[in-house]
């Protein structure tokens, strides 16, 4: 059971990560990492913290370590020129993974075009934002400015029915 299972959420996407290594020690390599929309505040979670509406790539403890993408903040930040309402990137996105997990992810994402010149958290966030704007335009377009995320979202896809049930909606 992953930490996300303690909170109301929905699996809204799957992100491809062709790493040859397990994202959780002792498990098989995981090529696909669920993308969740959090439907309640989880400000006291143990392995990550997020508010209602934020996106989590990975579910935390018991699953792949999580990357939190703050919504609508990330959409404003990446689609509005000169958006400077935040003191740090941690208000827009935050990786909750140890260095070993970062290495495991980066090995996989390098096969999909990521390079160390681009912070992995930024690269992933831009792909996820591009994906949600394409897959769910009515839900999030109102938070966007005139620009589009620099990435195309092609590392993401909609979950299958089975993946939705496994990664599933809770409560």
What does this molecule look like?
With 171 residues, the chain is an alpha+beta fold. It has one domain. The protein is built from five helices and six strands. The chain has helices spanning 73-79, 99-110, 120-135, 137-140, 161-167, and strands at residues 9-16, 32-38, 55-57, 66-69, 93-96, 156-157. The protein has a six-stranded antiparallel beta sheet with strand order 5-4-3-2-1-6, with helices on both faces. The two termini are 15 Å apart.
Architecture blueprint of SSEs:
Blueprint: E1 9-16, E2 32-38, E3 55-57, E4 66-69, H1 73-79, E5 93-96, H2 99-110, H3 120-135, H4 137-140, E6 156-157, H5 161-167
Antiparallel strand pairs: 1-2, 1-6, 2-3, 3-4, 4-5
Tags for this entry?
171 residues; alpha+beta; 6-stranded antiparallel sheet
The H-and-E topology, N to C, reads as EEEEHEHHHEH
Uncertain stretches: none
Cα-atom radius of gyration: 15 Å
Number of helices: 5
Ends: how far apart? 15 Å
Number of domains: 1
Mean pLDDT metric: 89
- Report the β-strand fraction as a percent range: 15-25%
Overall number of strands: 6
General shape: globular
Q: What structural class is derived from the secondary structure elements?
A: alpha+beta
Helix content percent band: 25-40%
Strand order of the largest sheet: 5-4-3-2-1-6
């Amino acid at each position: 059971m992953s930490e996300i299972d303690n909170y109301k959420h929905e699996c809204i996407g799957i992100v491809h990560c062709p790493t040859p290594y397990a994202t959780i020690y002792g498990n098989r390599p995981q090529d696909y990492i669920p993308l969740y929309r959090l439907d309640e505040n989880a400000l006291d979670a143990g392995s990550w913290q997020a508010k209602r509406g934020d996106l989590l790539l990975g579910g935390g403890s018991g699953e792949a370590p999580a990357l939190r993408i703050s919504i609508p903040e990330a959409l404003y930040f990446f689609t509005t020129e000169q958006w400077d309402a935040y003191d740090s990137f941690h208000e827009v996105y935050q990786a909750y993974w140890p260095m070993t997990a970062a290495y495991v992810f980066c090995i996989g994402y390098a096969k999909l075009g990521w390079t160390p010149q681009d912070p992995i958290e930024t690269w992933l966030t831009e792909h996820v934002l591009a994906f949600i704007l394409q897959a769910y335009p009515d839900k999030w377009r109102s938070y966007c400015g005139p620009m589009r995320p620099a990435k195309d979202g092609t590392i993401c896809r909609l979950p299958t029915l089975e993946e939705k049930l496994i990664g599933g909606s809770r409560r």
